Amino acid sequence: MIDVEQLRKSFNGKCALDGFTLHVGAGDLFGLVGPNGAGKTTLMKVLSTLLPVDSGTAQVGGVNVSAKAREVKRLIGYLPDQPGVYQDMSVREFLEFFADAFQLTGARHRAAVDRALERSGLAERSEDSVEQLSFGMKQRLVLAKTLLHDPKVLLLDEPATGLDPLARIELREQLKQLHAEGITILISSHILSDLEDICTQIALIGAGRNATDAEGHSVLQLRAAQTPVRIYEIEVIGDSAAAVAIVNSAAGARVLDSSMGRMVAEVTGADEQAASLLRALVVGGVNVLRFDHRALDLEERYKTVFREKNA
Amino acid sequence: MNPMIRKELRQRMRERRGWLLPSLYLVVLGAVVTFAYFLTTDRGTTTGIQGSAVGVALFLTLSYAQLALLLLLAPIFSAGSITIEKEQRTLAGLLTSLLTSGQIWWGKFVSSLLFVLLLLVTSLPVLSMAFAFGGVGPWEIFSATLTTVIILACMSAIGLYCSSAFQRSVHATAVSYATVVAITVVTAIIFFVRLAIYESANRGQGGATGNIWYSIPLNIRAPMYVNPFFFLTASFAPLKQLYPAWFTCACLFIGIGALAVALTLRNLRRRGDF
Fold first, then answer.
1. Is the domain covering A229-298 a CATH 3.30.70 domain?
2. Is the minimum CB–CB distance between B9 and chain A shorter than 8 Å?
3. Domain boundary assignment for chain A
């Protein structure tokens, strides 16, 4: 749905994007992480047709953003970092103006505005001035405005910045809902726990380029249906030699590290493979105290990628 | 209707200056006309003063005062028009909607100009006082109003260009005012200084015959063709004498305005760095 190939963009000789490449599939909820100045906002602006590119290609839904900006605008909903609102309008006037701006007319116009009011939870405050809304409410209003024309792709640049914990939770739930509705979402954020909670994949960006982790991955799979290799931490009571032997003899499993009744094992295959390994250990007479899937969390992976590069 | 125009007009009329500025404008204009009236009629004795002379004096005073006031007010409406969208971070929302850059510009331009034209219209009752005295015909009113509208449209276009080029309203407004000063004061200073030099160099070579203005070399006259007050003065000529001075001014003002429009649209299309 989003295809970015070797994108380059400079500002006064300073390179903001330096050959960045990204492919986001239809229906994905894709995260974009990187330090400040990595090029996230520039990428979002390019995809939302606000900035022309120096070289490379960027396509949304198969449409080139440079050549056919108007068609791309019909496909996307863009929420910039620190989005603004017209303080002197009422909530309904604000939504009606943008419904007009997206050329919605007649029944579709009314339905879109009513749906946006409902979606933002501001139906009862539709005649209130936007100025009277809290920051979180304004953010919900702007997101609802972004969805007025039923975009296929959402581009969200730091949408959770400045939100209180409750508003962040609401935003996460709303994004999960939109994802469930089949909308493709590209979201940049510094709040890694939020991304980890909602995203299916995360792209790493640093200095305008694709950053890679220790295994050379520039895209981290967070919620893949079938992860081929998983790491398990196993703790046993007593002598672990027998347990090591059982693991190493099991199909698709091998011990990576073991000491003092603890071992780290790699299991290739689906969850059933791990279940059969656990069964083999128990049937083999090993007293298993703990058998945990160890996922390297996003924060650790982020630190590994970007701290090492900065060091 | 362009949604930008509806939005802009709604927002403008909700501002306090929506009623404050027209009120102040009329007070100042009324004071100027009153002052001009007493100045014209107070010559020790009122005998011998033609009503038409008073009418012409009031009309000229009103026309120039009106232009001066509107030149001061036009940047307020136009120069902050796009920068306010940048400052309140709403420009990205506009540019990623299906509104074209042209529609955004047109909405801003129409709302800025309409407000200035509103001031022009509200001054009509004051202008009718000059009518009452005679000496001023519909043609003079029409040509002066048309000229004022062309000048204000050009200044609004320049203000919008400044608004698209700068990030902050204060900078855009300052540069807009600098432009107003440049075309009104600086051009006049350049003209009069060069004219004085020219006249001192050509003293004793005989006086000019026919139209004095056209006896001045074009390179000395040139700066005045972009001076709004000269443009307005040229509009007072009879219809058959509007060419070449008034037409030259009109072409230059429309040309400058068109250039400002093109540059503004380019800025709106190409700049996402707000």
1. yes
2. no
3. 2-221, 229-298
Q: Taking the CA of residue A178 as centre, how many other CA atoms within 13 Å lie in the half-sphere pointing to its CB?
A: 31
Q: Which residues of A touch B95 (CB under 8 A)?
A: 49-50
Cβ of A97 within 8 Å of Cβ of B95? The answer is: no
CA–CA gap between residue A195 and residue B142 (Å, rounded): 65
Please count the residues of chain B. 274
3-state secondary structure of A147: coil
Between B245-270 and B138-165, two packed helices, what is the crossing angle to 10 degrees? Answer: 30
- Phi/psi at A218 (5° precision): -95, -15
Residue B181, pLDDT above cutoff 90:
yes
Kind plus residue range of the DSSP H or E element containing A236 = strand A229-237
Range of the domain at B239: 3-270
Residue A31 has what DSSP assignment?
E
Domain A2-221: CATH superfamily is: P-loop containing nucleotide triphosphate hydrolases (3.40.50.300)
Nearest neighbour of A50 by CB, restricted to B3, B10, B272: B272
Q: Which residues does chain A have within 8 Å of residue B273's beta carbon, measured at their own beta carbons? A: 11, 51
Using 50, 70 and 90 to split pLDDT, how confident is the model at B46?
low
Q: How many CB atoms lie within 10 A of CB A49?
A: 23
Question: How would residue B197 be classed by pLDDT, with cut points 50, 70 and 90?
Answer: very high
* First-to-final CA distance of chain A: 36
How many domains does the structure of chain B reveal? 1
Partner residue facing A97 (CB), from B3, B15, B273: B3
Q: Which residue of B has its CA nearest to A43?
A: B272
